[in-house]
Design goal:
294 residues; 7-stranded mixed β-sheet; ABC_transpr_LolD-like; P-loop_NTPase; ATP binding; single chain; ATP-binding; 2 domains; 4-stranded antiparallel β-sheet; alpha/beta; 14 strands; Rossmann fold; disordered N terminus
């Protein structure tokens, strides 16, 4: 197992399926056959409509829930089959999860400084000595003047920056953030996103963010768009790529879905390193596989 303070950890999902039961007793498939790999130190934004499975996948990566089927690895450790004791240790030392809504991550009736101390309770003395000092961490998120201010008196932007500081207080190898900029002004949103990239880079932390805001997603070199419980497409440095899933399932880009209604006849042909898609009465569409694709 990697030691605290080392570079970020890689993630691998293999055939991940997750079901949950509604209050009415119906089983709902939230994720169906997710295959995904994220490199150590990479920063990725998850996108998708409500109910697409992006937040569910985030909780599985953090060990908050276990998948119904499939396997999830953080580095060499398979967390989907890990004992509760080891999983709790992992969550306290190697993985930090920011839930949606800053106050869900903080103790509202105590100070910023005490919130950071609470975030570090699971660390041993040696780990705390090597972690970023509390005063420096507060300064990095622009809260050096609010160290002894109680959380419930802070603005929304200040609370969210404190939640980020608490999430990074243990120098985690993986930071998972669910809608970290929701309900923030444009200025506070950009400040928080900038801090996520800056601190993630400095600590070498792998970062996965769930967001519905295009302005947030475009700041990430890689995006993963969830559709119907699967990885539907990926963005790499501004270019969008469809992802071929199990049994050859592929989600068409949104503009093609709007033009080609269900039932449209489509012919797919491969010509060397490109794919040609066409259907009766339409021009051919040429798709180039991602350069890293095998």
């Amino acid at each position: 197992m990697n030691e605290l303070g080392s570079r970020g950890v890689g993630i691998r999902c293999a055939g991940v399926v997750h079901l949950y039961r509604t209050f009415e007793g119906h089983d709902v498939v939230a994720l169906q056959g997710v295959d995904l790999e994220i490199k150590a130190g990479e920063r990725v934004a998850f996108l998708g409509p409500s109910g697409s499975g992006k937040s569910t996948l985030l909780t599985l990566l953090g060990g908050i829930q276990r998948p119904s089927a499939g396997r999830i690895f953080l580095g060499d450790d398979e967390i989907s089959r890990m004992s509760e004791r080891r999983l709790a240790r992992l969550r306290s030392r190697r993985v930090s999860t920011m839930l949606q809504g800053a106050t869900r991550n903080l103790l509202p009736h105590t100070t910023a400084r005490l919130n950071l101390k609470f975030a570090r309770l699971g660390m041993d003395a040696a780990d705390r000595d090597h972690a970023m000092p509390e005063t420096e961490l507060l300064s990095r998120v622009g809260l050096e003047g609010q160290a002894d201010q109680k959380v419930h008196t802070m603005s929304g932007g200040q609370r969210q920056r404190l939640a980020l500081a608490c999430a990074l207080a243990t120098s985690p190898q993986l930071l998972l953030a669910d809608e970290p900029t929701s309900q923030l002004s444009h200025g506070d949103r950009d400040h928080v996103v900038g801090l996520i990239h800056e601190l993630g880079e400095d600590l070498g932390t792998t970062v996965v963010v769930v967001t519905h805001q295009a302005e947030v997603a475009t700041s990430f070199a890689r995006t993963v768009t969830m559709k119907g419980g699967r990885v539907g497409s990926e963005g790499r440095n501004g270019s969008e790529y469809a992802v071929i899933g199990n049994e050859g399932v592929i989600h068409l880009p949104a503009h093609m879905v709007a033009e080609w209604s269900p039932g449209t006849l489509v012919r797919i042909e491969q010509e060397q390193r490109r794919i040609v898609v066409s259907h009766p009465g339409d021009e051919q569409v040429v798709a180039h596989p991602h350069p890293d694709a095998t």
